[in-house]
Amino acid sequence: MPVSIRDSIGFFLQLFPCGILCYLPFQKESMRMDNRRIYTVVAAYVGLQALLFGGIVQRCYASGMELQLLTPLADGYMTFAIVPLVILFFWMVHEQVVKKLLILYIVIFYAATQFWVVNLISPLIEFQSDPYGGAVVYSVEDVILYASTILLLLPIVLLLFIRPLREFMEDADTSTIAREFWFATVTTAGTILMLVYCASVRSNYEFPYFRVSAPLCLMLVIFQCFIYWLLFRESVRRRVDADNQKALEIQEIQSQKIAKEIEQARRMRHDMRHHLAVLYDLVDQNRLDAARNYLNELIGTVSRPENVIYCQNVTVNALLQYYISQAHEENIACRVHVVCDETTISPADLTVAFGNTLDNAIQACRKVPEDRWLMVRV
């Protein structure tokens, strides 16, 4: 295999999976274009950079450049190629900056882990002698190991992390991930530095050094993966707990209003005899206008908005009773049209989503000095 093609393949295998992993945790609604186009753009860009890299390094080989000079040149070119990918990632994804940075940290951690594994195993095997005396960027062993680690690590990443990451991106907001962001930043940076250091000094130590460092680094990688999993799970759990707490508070308010209505009904039954006696006296005295006014006043006191049945869905009906009653108390005109039966959505989720929507609408109406109105269509 020509050396330039080998270096191009190694460059592509090292960079392309990282470019794809950046986008996998996000839903298509967060993208400026569909996933196929994004992956095509990333593949085309990385492929072009890989071909250019292979040609440049081939000229360096031909000129007799030593490995001490060739390695910094290759690392600099890799950095130069990564910067446009990072810019494309931040432009392509419509999400909060902290979320994108967190995903970027995880992808860098994956790249550092792969780099450490390849540099750990590569000195132990030898498939083919290099015509340049070992002074190469990607040996045959490196190319084979990068391809093998992709087949090994990517399924693990997709299986264990992509789904929790997607749930985290959907449920978490800036306020709930601040602690996770900074903790992940510190732990990721420490782990990456340790892995890169252990992989970079392989030529300065004998195999017993790796026999000691390899288990320690492996434990560090596993521990860092556990930290990611724990952070994402706990962040989502806290958000769900907060939503459930809000749902319980709304249900508690609704229960208090129901209790209040029951108490009002009990008092009305107690006072009904008095009201009937007054009406009887007014009719007996032929004071029909006074009786009519008394009835209108009595009807106004017993006909309250929260008694209205808006729909058959218990949760939606309770939320509408609560918030429409609140809107009427603040002189907000309401028009409500609801057709809603029972749904597959859990009452807790429905309470949070629909309750937040109504609450935001009423808060917006409070900022309007006059002609305030609210229209609900379900």
Strand order of the largest sheet: 1-2
Biggest pleated sheet: 2 strands, parallel
Helix content: over 70%
- Taking all residues together, what is the mean pLDDT? 78
Give the overall form.
elongated
Please write the string of helix (H) and strand (E) elements: HHHHHHHHHEHE
Question: Can you tell me the residue ranges where pLDDT is under 50 for at least 5 consecutive residues?
Answer: none
Roughly how many Å is the radius of gyration? 34 Å
Number of helices: 10
How far apart are the first and last residues' alpha carbons, in Å? 65 Å
The oligomeric state of the chains shown is: single chain
**Strand residues, percent:** under 5%
According to DSSP, the number of beta strands is 2
How does the helix and strand content classify structurally? mainly alpha
Per-chain topology:
Elements: H1 3-21, H2 35-62, H3 67-92, H4 97-121, H5 140-171, H6 174-200, H7 207-284, H8 288-302, H9 314-329, E1 333-337, H10 347-366, E2 373-377
Parallel strand pairs: 1-2
Helix pairs in contact: 1-2, 1-4, 1-5, 2-3, 4-5, 4-6, 5-7, 6-7, 7-8, 7-10, 9-10
Question: Main attributes?
Answer:
2 strands; 378 residues; mainly alpha; two-stranded parallel ribbon; 3% strand
Protein model, in words:
It is a single chain. The protein is mainly alpha-helical. It is built from 10 helices and 2 strands. The protein has helices at residues 3-21, 35-62, 67-92, 97-121, 140-171, 174-200, 207-284, 288-302, 314-329, 347-366, and strands spanning 333-337, 373-377. Strands 1-2 form a two-stranded parallel sheet. The protein starts with a helix and ends with a strand.
